[in-house]
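pasting input
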Amino acid sequence: MITQEAIKAFETIHTPFYYYDMDLLNKTLQIYTSLTNKYGYSAHYALKANANPKILSAIQKAGLGADCVSGNEVALAVKSGFPAEKIVYAGVGKSDMEIKTALKAGIFSFNCESVPEIKIINDLAASMGKVAHIALRINPDIDAHTHKYISTGRKEDKFGISPWMFEGVAGLFESCNNIKLMGLHFHVGSQILDMSVFELLCRRIEELQGWFVEHGYPIANINMGGGLGVDYINPGEHPIADFESYFGVINKNLKVRPGQTVHFEPGRAIVAQCGHLVSRVLYVKIGQRKKFVILDAGMNDLIRPALYQAHHDIENLTSQKRKMRYDVVGPVCESSDKFASNVMLPQTKRGDLVAIHTAGAYGQVMAMRYNQRDIAKAYYSDEL
Ligand code: LLP
């Protein structure tokens, strides 16, 4: 929750802006790492969720590695102090230049998503006199029961290597001397709150790795990906994701073989709740059937509601009046530039400050300059 002290400080800041509660981030990291330490798991933070330098620094200091999906993310992770041996790199379309960046850095693992990609990584590694450590990103054909745009583990999704491609992969291993198979990687989707999805994934992993072991390819590490969801409806009640249930389910259901290490790639669950998009009300427009709160923040600042019909809790930080029903919209010239329909907010007027909560993950990183709008700046609780 945003303190009264912070709200006072907001009065002098140009809106819209992102506000990060660093105490909450550090508390989240502390709980997360106490559990990964307890179970002996390794974690690589998914930079794509939020790559602000201060956020990365806190996460790196907490001891997490980095999960990257582009050459620039790999370079940023290295620059931000993440040790190369804790960096993993996934993505269906790694360019030659990006692969070379990661080879030069000497990362822990390329999470490979297709047979042709493995061949190219081998050839580029050979040309640089290196051996690339790889994991196969497997498509386990699991429905994560989340929004279709953030489901990644069904066989019709573009991600990963499907079981019917395993023979082809094995054929490659015979002829490629500059790759070393270290692990299997899985990531079935994002914002997953149904723990049975992770339970099912654990069972599928056991079945799928059986194929590799039987064919003489021992698997040194299993990477479970990210995906744990957070509470967008009641962020104040659940500011920290349910890491305990999540790791409990995995510890109970994942059969870890002797000597094997287990890895995770959390993004949203680490940073979502510590971030808020703070905006000022420009106008309240009273229609015949609707009342519109028009903010100075738009879909270019936070695209999740427009792109995934995502719900974000909205709070009027400066009014305690009687509640009324509003649609909360932005200034961008698109009807999809809407943060919420029919929400109850205290009676709102021009100049009120509004916070859109749970915006720390996939908020600022997905901002764009549509309509030539400025990119919102970031402010941090320990610097106000
Ligand atoms: N690992 C891989 C390979 C991924 O593709 C992702 C996210 C993660 C880890 C981190 O997943 P998380 O723990 O954050 O669920 N923009 C969308 C989310 C896209 C997720 C993409 N992949 C949103 O705003 O909901």
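fyi DSSP finds eleven helices and 16 strands in the chain.
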